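Final report, section 2: Outcomes. Of the targets proposed, Ribosomal RNA small subunit methyltransferase E is the one most frequently requested by collaborating groups, and we therefore present its record in full.
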Amino acid sequence: MQRYFLDEVPTGEEFQLPEKVAHHFITVLRSREGSHAEFVLPNRQEIIIAKVVRFELDRPIMAIVSRQEAHVELPVDTTIIIGLSKGDKPELVVQKATELGVHHIIIVETAWSVVHWGQKAAKKITRLNKIATSAAEQAHRLRIPDVSYVASLADLVVDSTVKLVAWEESAKQGETSQLVQQLNGLRPDDSVSFLFGPEGGLSSQEVDELVKRGFVPVGLGPRILRAETAPLYALSTLSYVIELNI
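The predicted structure is given below as C-alpha cells.
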C-alpha cells in the first residue's frame, strides 16, 4: 500500500488530499474510488489508512478507514556526514541511507573533495530532500530524513552522544572492535553520528582535528569500502547491533 506524509492533521473523518499527493496517487498510480493509501500524520507517530470515496473538482476526497501506530524507526537519533563525492553518489547514499533508517544527512566539502557545489548547493539539497521523501515513503518510514549542506569541516557542528569517523588507516591497521564497542554502548534516546570521507578519503590532518572535537576513528572491516558503500555498511551494522542482536 502506498504511503504518504501529511503536513496537516485531517479535521474530520474525510479530507482532501494535498495537490502534490493527489497528483501522484491519482495521476501516476491511477487510483480510483475505493483505492486505499497510508498517511503518516504530522506527529510522525500515527498512521491513518484512508480510501477514495469521491472526487470534488477532480481532487480526491478520502475517508479514514482505520488508525494505527508503528515502530519502525531506529531507537537512536542517527546522523551520517558524507564528504562531497562525484556524480550521483550523494543521491544513491541519500536514497539507501533513508531506507536504512537514518534521521539526518549532512553533505560536507572536505580537503580532498574533487567537486564543489558552491552556488549550486541549494538546488542540489532541494533535490536530495525530494529523494529522501520518496525513499521514506517507499520504505514505510515514519520520519523523513533532513538533508543539509556544510561548506567545510570547520563549519560542521555535531552534538551527538557518540561521534565516529570512518578512517581507512584504522582498517589497514587491523582495528576491528572499536565500531561495535561504541555502538554497543548506545542506549535508547542517545544519538550517534558517522562521518565519512569522499572518494579520496580524509587527510590525516582532518582526522586529527575531528579527534580533538570528540570523534572516534573506527575501521569498517578488513576491506576498503567505496565512499558510497561505507555509510550503508555503518548503518547496517548499527541496525544489527541495536535492533536485531537481541
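DSSP finds seven helices and eleven strands in the chain.
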